[in-house]
Amino acid sequence: MSLHVHLPGLELKNPVMPASGCFSFGKEYAQFYDLDTLGAVIMKAATKEPRLGNKTPRVAETSSGMLNAIGLQNPGVDKIISEEMPFLNEYALPKIANIAGSSPEEYAETAKKMSPHVQALELNISCPNVKEGGIQFGTDPDLASNVVGQVKKVSEVPVYVKLSPNVTDIRGMAVACEQAGADGLSMINTITGMQILKERRRPLLHNQTGGLSGPAIKPVAIRMIHEVYPYVSVPIIGMGGIGSAEDVLEFLLAGASAVAVGTANFHNPFVMPEIIADLPGVLREYGFSSAEEAIGGAHY
Amino acid sequence: MQTYDMKVVNHREIAECTYEITLQTDVFFPAEPGQFVHILVDPPHQLRRPLSLASSSGREITVVYKTFGEGTRTLANKKRGETVNVLGPLGNGFTLPEQKKVMLVGGGVGVPPLLWLAKELHKNGKKVSAVLGFKSVNQVFYRREMEEYAEVTVVTDDGSSGEKGLVTKWLDPEADVYYACGPNPMLKALEAQLAIPGYNSMEERMGCAIGACFACTVETTDGGYVNVCKDGPVFPKGRVKLP
C-alpha cells in the first residue's frame, strides 16, 4: 500500500503532517516519536519581528473542539532560522514554513528569508487572533492576490496559501489565490468563535474571540474543500478536526492531496504516528490501493 | 516521554467540590514534587486537564482537583477500577532550599503540591510552616496531613475555620524562604509583601502542556516570555510578571 503523495515542492512518503501552530518547531513532539515518521512538518508561524502574542487565557475547550487566541507568538524569522531550524534539519522530512505579516512587504521580506531553508511556504492569511494583518488578507480576494503575488516574486520554493473559513465565498478566495500564482492551498484555518465565562459575565479568552478548531469544524473543512476542489488545479492540504485515519480518508475523498493534524495532538501526542500506521488498513477497507487513488474520490 | 494508562484505586470528595484521585501504574512513573500531569478526560473532551501532583511513589500518584467546569465534573465520575490516561510527569519541580526555615503558602487547590514538598522538606530536616488559605470551612482539606510535616495555620475568607481573612495577614515572620501555590493575586500579594526569597508555582490554562502550543505563555519581568508548562510551573519570585 503506497501512502506516497506528490505536491509542488513536496514528495511525501505519507500525507500526514502537523498543522502550523500546534507543533511549534518539532522539538517537543520529538520526545515522543521519530519526526521522520511524518510526511512533513509545518512550522509555527514566522513573522518579521518577534511577537509575544496575546495575554492569557489563550485557550478554552468547547463542545468537540477548542478556541485559541495565541496571537502568532514566535521568536521572529531570524531566530527561527538560527535557533529552530538546526534541530529540524537533523531530520530528513520536508519542512514547510508558515509565514505571517501585517503588510504584503512584511510577508515578502519574511518569505524571502525563510524560503532557502524549507521545501515550501504556507502563507498564513487567515489568523483570526491578531489586530493587524492575518485574516484581513484572507477575507478580501484583492488583498490576498497582492500578498500572494509579492511573495511569489521572492520565494525560491512553492507557495501554499492557508485560507480562512471566515468568508462567504471560499471558492472566490481560492480561485483568486491560484490566479495570483499560489502553488497550493491549505484549508481551513480556524473559525472565529467566543466563549463566555458565566461567573464573570465576560468572554473567557483575554482576546475575547478565538479560533475554533477540533472535530467541531471537520464538516466545515470537508465542505469547503469539496466546494473548492473542482474549481482549482492546484493541490489542497486539508485540515480541520482530523483525529483518525478514517478522517484522513474523508479529506482525501473531498479533494485534499495531503492533510494536517492540529488539535488532536493535544489530546493524544501519538496521534499522527497512529494515524499513519492505521491509514493503509483504512484505505484497503474502502477499496483503495494507494493514498493518491483516493484524492478527489468524492467528486463524480 | 510517554502516556500512562493508570487505574483508579481511590477517588473521594475531600472538601466541597474538591476531589482526591489516586492512580496506579504498572510502569514506573518518575516524578518530583512540583511537577504536574496532563489528564485525559473521556471524549468528547478535546483538551487534557493539567493537575499538580499531591504525591507520587513511582507506582501510585495522587492529584487533587476542583470541579470547576465540565471536564473536571466528568473526571469526578471516574470509578475505582476504571482507567485514566496520564501524560507526564511534566514541568520542573521545586528546587529545595539552602535555608533552614521554610514557609509554604497555599491557596485552595494550590495546597496539594505543597503537601508533597512539605514531606520532602521535613525529611531534609527543615523547619516548615504552612499557611493554608480557603474560602470557608467546607473547602478546607489536607490540614491534618500537612500537620505531620509543618506548623499549620489555616485561614478562611470568612473565618469559619482557623483564622479570618487572607493568607497574607497570617504569614510566618521567622521564615527565610517561601514556596507559594495558589491564585495569581495571592502570588502577587506575597511578592509585594515578603522581602525573603521565594518560589511561585503557577496555574494556567494549557493546550499541549509540553511547550509546543504556546497556550500558557506568560511574560517575564525582563520582557521575555516563558511557558508555564515547560519552563515552570515553578518560577523563582520576580521571574514572571504576574497577571
TrEMBL record, chain A:
Cofactor list: FMN
Keyword field contains NAD: yes
Subcellular location: Cytoplasm
EC number(s) per entry: 1.3.-.-
InterPro entries (UniProt xref): Aldolase_TIM, DHO_dehydrogenase, DHOD_1B, Dihydroorotate_DH_1, Dihydroorotate_DH_1_2, Dihydroorotate_DH_cat, Dihydroorotate_DH_CS, Dihydroorotate_DH_I
Principal localisation: cytoplasm
SUPFAM superfamilies listed in its UniProt record: FMN-linked oxidoreductases
Pfam families assigned: DHO_dh
Subunit architecture: Heterotetramer of 2 PyrK and 2 PyrD type B subunits.
Similarity section: Belongs to the dihydroorotate dehydrogenase family. Type 1 subfamily.
Entry protein name: Dihydroorotate dehydrogenase
Organism lineage: Bacteria, Bacillati, Bacillota, Bacilli, Bacillales
This protein's encoding gene: pyrD
UniProtKB/TrEMBL annotation, chain B:
Lineage: Bacteria, Bacillati, Bacillota, Bacilli, Bacillales
Binding residue positions for FAD: 49-52, 71-72
Residues the entry annotates as binding [2Fe-2S] cluster: 208, 213, 216, 229
Subunit (UniProt): Heterotetramer of 2 PyrK and 2 PyrD type B subunits.
InterPro entries in alphabetical order: Cyt_c3_hydrogenase_gsu (IPR012165), Dihydroorotate_DH_ele_sf (IPR037117), Dihydroorotate_DH_Fe-S-bd (IPR019480), Dihydroorotate_DHASE_ETsu (IPR023455), FAD-bd_FR_type (IPR017927), FNR_nucleotide-bd (IPR039261), OxRdtase_FAD/NAD-bd (IPR001433), PyrK_electron_transfer (IPR050353)
Primary gene name: pyrK
Organism, as annotated: Salimicrobium album
Keyword hit for Electron transport: yes
Family membership: Belongs to the PyrK family.
Keyword Transport among UniProt keywords: yes
Record-linked Pfam families: DHODB_Fe-S_bind, NAD_binding_1
Protein name per the record: Dihydroorotate dehydrogenase B (NAD(+)), electron transfer subunit
Task of the protein: Responsible for channeling the electrons from the oxidation of dihydroorotate from the FMN redox center in the PyrD type B subunit to the ultimate electron acceptor NAD(+).
Pathway annotation: Pyrimidine metabolism; UMP biosynthesis via de novo pathway; orotate from (S)-dihydroorotate (NAD(+) route): step 1/1
Keyword entries, A-Z: 2Fe-2S, Electron transport, FAD, Flavoprotein, Iron, Iron-sulfur, Metal-binding, Pyrimidine biosynthesis, Transport
